[in-house]
Design a protein that fits this description.
Strand content: 25-35%
Strand order of the largest sheet: 29-28-30-33-32-34-35-31
Helix content: 10-25%
Distance between the termini: 74 Å
């Protein structure tokens, strides 16, 4: 079960202490720049642009709404009966004065407006209902919320969409039903405006026009790696406190504009290096106040030394930050299960509430985070103990399905047409269907009745229940085989593996510029959210270099950009955060390829792509027709194809990504994991052609829908479409094994044999052969009688 918050707070505190004890670095962002590079006229001589804040960081006109905290995917409700759980934060005076809940929504044209409704609850109390009838654009609904509904701090909102199709009564048609809310125009309109006076008020920071939460680290022109390392623990704590999946971190000399947070961190030493910088009037300690522009906050941490700042931060974690951390990042009912070996959970732990279902396809989903060193194979199963009931009158085709990562892994038929009750019915889920990190789990119940075939909406009885799924339904995790196998970007995205174990690691920023630094800090914040703890990172402004057994995150760009000054070319674009001009609305967040090669960090050569294409064309042109092949060649091709098909079936792959082909020479950004040159550590390499590309690519990579879907050995973002492609690992290397007990070794052996079944077959056949030989020698001797 989930660990107590006190334990998590201690871990948070220890992580911060370790982070603050890292060696101080005197590296300067300017010192790390190539000495031959020259500054072009009109450009700032600092790595930090003195130009206005990029357009994407500036939000639309502030509406005064207290925003919901959840990121964009949480605002989409699909199916006949869907639930969204949102939250917003109020100060005590705001909760006492009430206000109105503003919801801006639209829906699919297939939704029947006559009977489709949206039910709204605030803190467990019904706040109203409205019809779902806005297929032509966003429509606002305003519900008055009295003070008796509200409470200081986090307030929970449950939106339940009950949607019916206009003309189609098939199960497939239920996937055409959806409603979604506009996060920038939805929230709570408080009667009183509060501003930013306390840490809890930071939870009310609105998002920008790009639907991201902007955090801007303010640094002086002579910014150094020491300043970045001073700011890193504060930045990670702020990310954990706000608990938002859509953080975008930028660095700059000037404060930002529009909604967001300006972060100032300084010790006496770094403050002396930054004479004349903004934020000098901030008091000692950790403080929050208005930044000036409406909707923008300023967070400041000021101390005499790094140890002093660490002490101030720990006091805040154990004091004013504790309540929001407890109800936010450490909350058990967040829609996510943090799974571990030999543990059990119920649907109630995901925030699910028991409800009666009257439609054709019941869908209940949650996210399950498996351990990063979990070995998925067929040595055990996850037990789903179903507590549910069906009503009489269902057709014999009714069934219960479990879908993991968008693939059906098991089914159970509802054979009793008179209705039946399930009290802990065991349904086994194969471990192989899961993967380290995030796993999307859906519980589906197909519930057809004879009346669906006539499809007369006016004659439909939506009040007759067909199915009820109880929140007591249990998920039991067995003992797991544990071994760290990399590359695995799913484990990185889900648990920040291998950086979340408390050991110090390096973040190498190859080019000391604003875009690369912003990308590194954005990645660090996202990994801290995945680990649910601050990470013990040491930021270095240099090229990657082996450092014993220390793991590393490498932010790298084309080496050719280091010689821009000598080449006489214009500088790379300063504005790395301009709005995306390519629409990704019709592009899947993740596309999976089936090739197994990994990207190599460093400059990409188009000549290699041309040679590969020519070689492929040559092979195709010289391939003999199938009818001209020999019998041996045909048999080899058949067995090869059969083995490939069996492998895909064994690993729950449908081959949908077989046509995707990654082209490193045309990638905006690549994400790979490799052993360090010494072989004693792991490097995660984020590579792009230019600083502007790496800033834009990381912004795309950490989008919630993309980040949660990362899996395999490597990933790329295409330059033109910004589509994300993932590639299975061609080969794994062992990153560590913390459990060396005999039971874990036994499970690892069973897992290996299930992955390499051909050796298991050979072993069985070999043992049978040995037994046959033994019989051949033993039986003749036993059957001979001697008369001596």
């Amino acid at each position: 079960m989930a660990k107590p918050f006190r334990t998590r707070t201690v871990g948070l505190s220890l992580a911060l202490i370790m982070a603050q004890t890292l060696p101080l670095s005197a590296q300067s962002l300017l010192d790390a720049a190539p000495s031959a590079a020259r500054i072009l006229p009109g450009d700032s001589e600092s790595i930090l642009s003195t130009r206005p804040v990029p357009a994407e960081a500036a939000a639309a006109k502030v509406s005064g709404l207290v925003p919901f905290e959840q990121a964009l995917p949480a605002y989409h409700l699909s199916g006949e009966d869907a639930v969204a759980r949102l939250s917003f934060n109020l100060a005590a005076d705001q909760a006492a004065s009430g206000g109105q809940l503003t919801l801006s929504y639209r829906n699919a044209v297939s939704v029947l407006p006559d009977t489709s409704v949206m039910d709204v609850e605030v803190n467990g109390k019904s706040a109203g209902t409205f019809k779902i009838a806005s297929p032509n654009g966003f429509k606002q609904e305003a519900l008055a919320i009295g003070a008796d509904f509200l409470r200081p701090g986090r307030n929970q909102v449950v939106l339940r969409a009950r949607q019916f199709h206009r003309v189609d009564c098939s199960l497939e048609a239920t996937y055409e039903l959806w409603s979604e809310f506009d996060p920038s125009a939805s929230g709570f309109a408080a009667t009183r405006q509060h501003g930013f006076q306390s840490f809890a008020d930071l939870l009310t920071v609105a998002r920008t026009e790009a639907n991201v939460t902007d955090i801007r680290l303010i640094l002086p022109q002579a910014a150094t790696a020491e300043m970045l390392n001073d700011a890193a623990p504060v930045l990670q704590t702020l990310a954990l406190f706000m608990n938002r999946d859509d953080l975008a971190v930028t660095v700059g000399e000037k404060p930002g504009t529009g909604p967001g947070v300006d972060l100032y961190v300084s010790s006496d030493k770094t403050r002396a290096q930054a004479r004349g910088a903004d934020g000098q009037a901030a008091p000692y300690g950790l403080s929050v106040r208005d930044a000036g522009p409406e909707g923008r906050a300023m967070v400041s941490l000021r101390g005499a030394t790094r140890a002093d700042m660490s002490s101030q931060l720990l006091q805040a974690i154990q004091g004013p930050l504790k309540e929001s951390l407890d109800s936010g990042i450490f909350s058990r009912q967040s829609g996510t299960i943090i799974a571990d070996a030999s543990t059990s959970f119920t649907l109630a732990d995901t925030g699910y509430e028991t409800r009666v279902f009257s439609g054709r396809l019941s869908r209940t989903g949650f996210n399950m985070v498996m351990p990063a060193d979990f070995y998925p194979a067929d040595y055990a199963t996850i037990g789903l103990k179903l507590s549910a009931a069906t009503s009489p009158g269902l057709k014999r085709t009714a069934q219960f399905l479990v879908r993991v990562n968008d693939r059906v892994v098991t089914s159970y038929p509802f054979r009793n047409t008179a209705g039946e009750q399930f009290d802990g019915k065991l349904i086994e889920l194969p471990l192989r269907a899961f993967r380290p990190g995030n796993n999307k789990v859906e519980l589906l119940a197909e519930l057809p009745v004879d009346a669906d075939e006539t499809c007369a909406p006016e004659a439909r009885d939506d009040t007759a229940p067909r199915f009820i799924l109880l929140k007591e339904t249990k998920i039991e995790i067995p003992a797991l085989a544990r071994i760290g196998r990399l590359p695995d970007i799913g484990g990185l995205a889900g648990t920040a593996y291998p950086y979340a174990d408390g050991r110090p690691f390096d973040i190498f920023i190859e080019r000391p510029d604003a875009q690369s630094t912003s990308a590194a800090l954005t990645m660090l914040s996202r990994l801290a959210l995945a680990a649910r703890n601050p990470l013990n990172a040491d930021i270095r402004l240099s090229g990657a270099a082996p450092s014993g057994e220390r793991n590393a995150l490498v932010i790298t760009t084309q080496n050719a950009f280091a010689e821009l000054g000598n080449a006489g070319k214009s500088a790379f674009p300063v504005n790395a955060f301009q709005p995306m001009t390519v629409s990704t609305a019709d592009v899947d967040p993740i596309r999976t390829a089936t090739i197994g090669n990994m990207f190599e960090a460093g400059p990409e050569q188009n000549n290699d792509d041309d040679s590969t294409a020519l070689l492929d064309a040559f092979r195709k042109s010289t391939t003999r027709p199938q009818d001209e092949l020999s019998v041996t060649s045909k048999m080899q091709d058949w067995f090869s194809g059969a083995g490939t098909r069996f492998g895909k079936w064994l690993n729950y792959q449908d081959g949908s990504g077989s046509t995707a082909k990654l082209r490193p020479g045309h990638s905006l950004l690549t994400l790979t994991q490799t052993p360090s040159p010494s072989g004693d550590a792991v490097w995660t390499v984020v590579h792009a052609a230019s600083p502007a590309d790496i800033a834009l690519g990381v912004r795309r990579l950490v989008e919630p829908a993309v980040w949660q879907g990362l899996n395999g050995g490597s990933a790329e973002i295409e330059t033109a479409s910004l589509a994300v492609n993932t590639v299975p690992a061609g080969a794994h290397f062992i990153a560590g094994m913390t459990d060396q007990s005999p039971s874990n070794l036994r499970r690892l052996a069973a897992a290996w044999f299930s992955d390499n079944f051909q050796f298991y077959v050979v072993l069985i056949v070999g043992l049978m052969g040995v037994f046959a030989v033994w019989l051949g020698f033993a039986i003749p001797r036993k059957g001979v009688r001697s008369d001596q």
